[in-house]
Write a structure and sequence with these properties.
Blueprint lengths: L11 H33 L5 H7 L3 E6 L2 E6 H26 L6 H26 L16 H10 L6 H25 L6 H20 L4 H16 L7 H9 L8 H12 L11 H16 L3 H25 L11 H28 L11 H8 L6 H11 L2 H31 L11
Helix pairs in contact: 1-5, 1-12, 3-6, 3-9, 3-12, 4-6, 4-13, 5-6, 7-8, 8-9, 10-11, 12-15, 13-14, 13-16, 14-16, 15-16
């Protein structure tokens, strides 16, 4: 009997759920690595090596082309350059879920969209209410986003007790508000607009759309054009990381080779009898080459790029970002109590309040659907985790605040993230430790 017959049959849904589960696993492990990197940055920043460690990230680095020199600090290359890949992967995951995953149903997608919107607007309002006219009021954008890796890491600690609907809800919410936050960065924290550079970026995006329509599938070509678009945005006054979001959303979600065509091509290769004909038979070599292309192109560009880039982003770029930005020298720092309090209040109170309030509104107005197994209690407990705003909050803080206020901001972000993680974990642990069965009532 064939070995394949001894296994359960695969369903089309498997192709949709496997990438999502893989994304969750990587994010869960990335949360641990990110936490270790953050602790390491804090420890080193408060040792005898503090001055050298902090100065390292301000060291200039660049390249020169004749009379033209492109030079930035190491922190700038990490925050604006490497983080573009982070937003690119986030946009890939968002588009895949919208086109192929659970969020392709508009009413299912409407719930995390509404929650993300509430989780941006309400904490920004709380921040402005608490900070008043104190210095730093222009930093309202830092309290708008949720750290995907830390949230998924907290959920992973609770294992199978957490329903997949809550994981999808929080992951989708985090992705939506990450995209929203980078749009806020592009609009609210950019410089004076350089229309010539914006025009060059627009031409670059048009080139990407044109070569995609023509059928160019060579990924390095797209990265080369994308690098030019990044440079154009970098000098345009719009934050360059928006390049990652735009190109991620432009990436095709459908595969070029169908399953039927793949099987037909592979059948031709399998039909050849054993022998040394691959090196001497031109037709056989052509069939073998065609099979290699087909097995690669049966995956959509979104899947291929996500598989290739996500581990690098999770285990290299994000830890490097934490090392470059999370260090706070406690002894030498001067703290603004009002600013730190405003950040903590916005994340710990405003963020979950906005998520729950706008989720309720979306369901009551029949704009969105709440999954049956996602009770309001679970949603409210999970919303406490959305106050973990670490990555994007630090990212925006570097743009919004003067160096004299950064230590206060980082302390508020770190404090809010710790409180939110503890509150969300304890609430979910309490809810899911009760042995009462899940109530499978119709979402309302």
């Amino acid at each position: 009997m064939s070995e394949s017959l001894a296994r359960l049959p695969k369903e089309p849904a498997d192709r949709l759920t496997r990438p999502f589960l893989r994304f969750l696993r990587i994010e869960a492990m990335a949360g641990v690595v990110l936490l270790l990197s953050t602790v390491l940055a804090l420890v080193i920043a408060n040792t005898a090596w503090s001055a050298s460690f902090l100065a390292l990230w301000d060291m200039p680095a660049g390249i020169r082309f004749g009379e033209v020199e492109v030079s930035r600090s190491l922190r700038h290359w990490i925050n604006d350059g490497l983080m573009t890949l982070f937003f690119f992967v986030i946009a890939l995951e968002l588009k895949r879920e919208l086109v192929l995953g659970e969020l392709r149903n508009p009413r299912v997608a409407a719930l995390p969209v509404a929650a993300a919107f509430g989780g941006m607007v309400v904490p920004a309002g709380v921040f402005l209410l608490v900070i008043g006219s104190s210095p730093g009021a222009n930093g309202w954008g830092i309290v708008m986003s949720t750290d995907t890796a830390f949230v998924i890491g907290c959920l992973a600690m609770l294992g199978s007790r957490i329903p997949e609907s809550l994981r999808l809800f929080l992951l989708s919410l985090a992705i939506f508000d990450d995209v929203g936050a980078i749009l806020v960065v592009a609009i609210g924290y950019g410089g004076t607009l350089n229309w010539a550079a914006l025009g060059a970026a627009g031409i670059g995006l048009a080139v990407v759309a044109a070569i995609s329509r023509l059928g160019v599938r060579n990924i390095p070509v797209y990265f080369a054009v994308g690098g030019g678009i990044w440079l154009a945005f970098d000098t345009s006054g719009v934050h360059a990381t928006v390049t990652g979001v735009i190109l991620g959303l432009m990436t095709p979600a459908r595969s070029w080779v169908s399953d039927t065509r793949l099987h037909a091509i592979l059948d031709r290769v399998v039909a050849y009898p054993p022998g040394d004909h691959w090196s001497g038979d031109a037709a056989a070599r052509g069939d073998l080459h065609r099979a290699g292309v087909a097995t690669r192109e049966v995956l959509s560009p979104i899947e291929r790029l996500e598989i290739a880039l996500h581990p690098w982003v999770a285990f290299a770029i994000m830890p490097l970002f934490a090392l470059a930005n999370a260090g706070v020298p406690m002894a030498a720092a001067t703290f603004d109590a009002a600013l730190t309090t405003a950040i903590v209040a916005a994340f710990v109170v405003g963020k979950p309040a906005g998520v729950v309030l706008f989720s309720v509104l979306a369901v009551k107005l029949r704009l969105g659907i709440r999954p049956n197994e996602l009770s309001w209690g679970l949603l409210a407990a999970g919303s406490l985790l959305t106050g973990i705003g670490f990555t994007m909050a630090l990212f925006i803080a570097e743009l919004a605040f003067e160096p004299t206020l950064l230590d206060s901001v980082k302390l508020g972000i770190l404090g809010a993230s710790i409180i939110s993680a503890a509150a969300g974990f304890l609430a979910l642990n309490w809810l899911t430790s009760r042995r009462t069965p899940w109530r499978h009532t119709r979402g309302s």
